[in-house]
Amino acid sequence: MSLWPQWEALVRRDPHRLLLWMPSSGWTSAAAIHERACAQVSAWHELPLRGGIVLYSLPNGVEWLAVFLALQKLGAIAAPADPATPPAELERLAGAVRAAWVVDGNKLRPLACRSRRRSGPRTSPVRPGWPRLLRTDA
Question: Whole-prediction pTM value?
Answer without folding.
Answer: 0.78
